[in-house]
Known about the structure:
P_typ_ATPase_HD_dom, about 15% strand, transmembrane, 4 domains, alpha/beta, binds adenosine-5'-triphosphate, 24 strands, Calcium-transporting ATPase, transmembrane domain, ATP hydrolysis activity, HAD_sf, translocase, 9-stranded mixed β-sheet, Calcium-transporting ATPase, cytoplasmic transduction domain A
Amino acid sequence: MTDTLAENGTVDGRRPPAQLFRDLRTSADGLGAREAARRLTVYGPNELTRRAARTWPAQLRAQFTQPLAVLLMVAAVLAWLGGAPELAWAVVAVILLNAGFAFAQERQAERAVEALAAYLPAAARALRDGVVVEVPARDLVPGDVIELAEGDRVCADGRLLDGELTLDLSALNGESVPAARTADADFAPGPLLEARELVFSGTACLTGLARAVVTHTGMHSEIGRIAALSQRGHTGPSPLERQVRRATWIIAAVAVAAGAAFLPIGVVSGLGWAAAISFTIGLIVANVPEGLLPTITLALAGGVRELARDGALVKRLSAVETLGSTTVICTDKTGTLTENRMRVARLWLPGAEVDPADPRAGPLAYAAALCTTAADAGDPTELALLRHAADLRVPVRPADRDRGRRALYAFDARLMRMSTVDGDEVHTKGALESVLPLCTRVRLPGGEAAGLSPEVRAGLAAATDRYAASGLRVLAVASRPAAGLPADRASAERDLTLLGLVAMVDPLRPEVAAAVTAAHEAGIRVHVITGDYGPTAAEIARQAGIGRGGMRIVTGSELDRMTEADLDSLLARPGEVVFARSSPEGKLRICEALRATGQIVAMTGDGVNDAPALRHADIGVAMGRSGTDVAREAATMVLTDDNFATIVRAVDAGRRVFDNVRKFVLYIFAHAVPEVVPFLIFALSGGAVPLPLTVLQILAIDLGTETLPALALGRERAEPGLMSRPPRSPSSGVIDRRLLLRAWGVLGVVSAVLVVAGYFWSLWRAGWQPGVPVGTGSALHEAYRQATTMTFAGIVACQIGTAFAARTEHASLRSIGLLSNRLLLAGIAFEVAFAAAVIYLPPLQAVFGTAALEPVHLLVLLPFPVVVWAADELFRWRGRASRSVGTFGPARAAAAAKR
Ligand SMILES: Nc1ncnc2c1ncn2[C@@H]1O[C@H](COP(=O)(O)OP(=O)(O)OP(=O)(O)O)[C@@H](O)[C@H]1O
């Protein structure tokens, strides 16, 4: 039995408390703050050391061993062997630059995600100096006494001192059946995990309330030993990253194949082996989109950071893109649609309906306030009851209440009620349909009891419906004298006398209605899944604007009776559904049914029992303020403000990030055509037309002038109409046919025509005819250098036009404003300065084979950006026009109807 002692080098938690206190040098009152601090330095923080994270040298090394870098290295070696050392050096520079860039971006993305972990501190309630205080979970030390309640994540291994719990041990043993734990269990030999007096770090407390003394923390805990947690939070590549990786490879393969095909053509055309090889290599280097992947990772990380500022903490990079394709939001009501600030609005006493200030409500208010566990903070429903009792001059002080409490049957979301035994009275409060069956009498306002007559029942039903119709939450309150202490919950909750109903307002959050409208605009359906009464929830939903296309109310029991096919057809019909009195199982079923029909589901939840649904949803959304640790851990996204509107904002951000990734893909792809066409002309003319663009000029464009504008496109603001489009189908890739058509067919072709025209114009102007030599020493050599410079400058000019065109996918440039992306303007200024340096600075002229352009050249270049942009503007305009009248309109309507 001393196996754990030996292995951990610490204490065996299965000893009786008195012995544990001695071994751990502590007591039932826990540790003092100073002693705890001292132990923290001895035992170390209560954390699982991560699986050795990659250190930065390893991360940097990885940049050089990744396949694209290796491909470039092969190119460099070939260039060297082919007798083009300058090119070899240039390629090496490209490799170094790229690696540095990717490395920096990866680090930054990683930091963004790590910073989020800090936003989500796990907290524990520990006794320090005899009082319960909230401490960061990492500060727990052996000897601490902690309090555990429903919804808490257990943060350390320990032994129960008092109380009872049920635990979800699935993180440790994979079993989802809740395990009962009690302080009074006797020692029984057997596996540690089955010891009924022990609790374990990483598990979740499903029900109950207990205190435990901490025996093991950090890596000494069971979960630390299994090191299961180190698997968590592992982030694989997102679907977007996978797609882009695949696309990168395809493009690289095409570039290599094209390069290989051009090599013999170049030689046959009289370019000579050395020049042909170097050109081939240049073509490959230029067209392999090395920087794409890290840039996308960075864009996602930027999205994550932005969301965090907006109140939505996303735990995985990939969630950002999933958010963008959300088609259904399942939200709960209290606290998410509403403010979760309750106030008692009306009271119903048998035979009378009164205002909150009416003294006749005193006994009801007092009983309701006694049946609470909230103190200064806690359940807003209970805080409202405590406040109301105080207003009526029958105050209940939490400290007095707790002192007089003899038993507590905590609020159970399934039973929808809670009960307490205070002094010699039982108090029960909860949903009417849950409490009424336990009642045998009512208490009349005069104080005397009467039977539950049909009239009273009718009055109750009428009052409940009236309150619900105006969106009030209704609680029934009952009590009875208790001579002895009831043996269990069932014997406490019977023979009750109904005191009356308390109706509370919980106002709608002001920003919710606009957010619901925005969701509808964006083609997203909103269903409400709530524990509350149907008509109440329906009224709140109506106020929020939910129910477009018709609203249906489905209660928990109706849902239980539905077959899967019924549920599918309910969800397939147009309109929105309010699922009332729902159970966690119901939530999971709804989630599964929606996902089975291909919907992308964002689902909110805050309770322990919501965890399965949160895990199952595409985007599980937990509440940062009111939610439980368990829900937060299961969720993909945590809302720091618990606000429905934040979900919609997150969808918006998700769509924007995806869009912006497409923008720079478009921009980067567009230059391929004007870079390849000049080479084709040279090859197809059999060398009669001299090569219009040198390799180093291509590199100067792809790795110099274009970098900053491309990055700036990733920071573009949301395009108008972004949230009035239907959700993107999750199967549609980031690179689709329309994008390629635009990049190559429109922007690329127009650019190529302009660039080639500029080249020929410049040559002819100097008196060149096909076949006339332009090599070093020839009469036309200077004119030829000027002409290639013209090609280079032409591509740069066209890419400026492309950058402005790429800013929107559908909208016109006018609608977003020419100057609204400052970063892009700065990027273009850099582009122009870089190009000017290459063209006009003599040392660079020598490297890049350029010659200074004359004013007349510049005049010819001036319209290039405008023409390229205008061609794309026309393309987008046609797209918009055909969408509003043509194919897209009905398609969209059909899609909306299907949804
Ligand atoms: N503290 C409480 N004590 C007793 N009964 C409660 C308490 N809180 C809620 N109830 C009852 O249980 C019902 C269900 O509550 P639950 O917390 O599951 O859902 P909700 O807060 O109404 O809505 P949502 O699921 O949207 O958050 C409530 O309608 C109410 O009748």
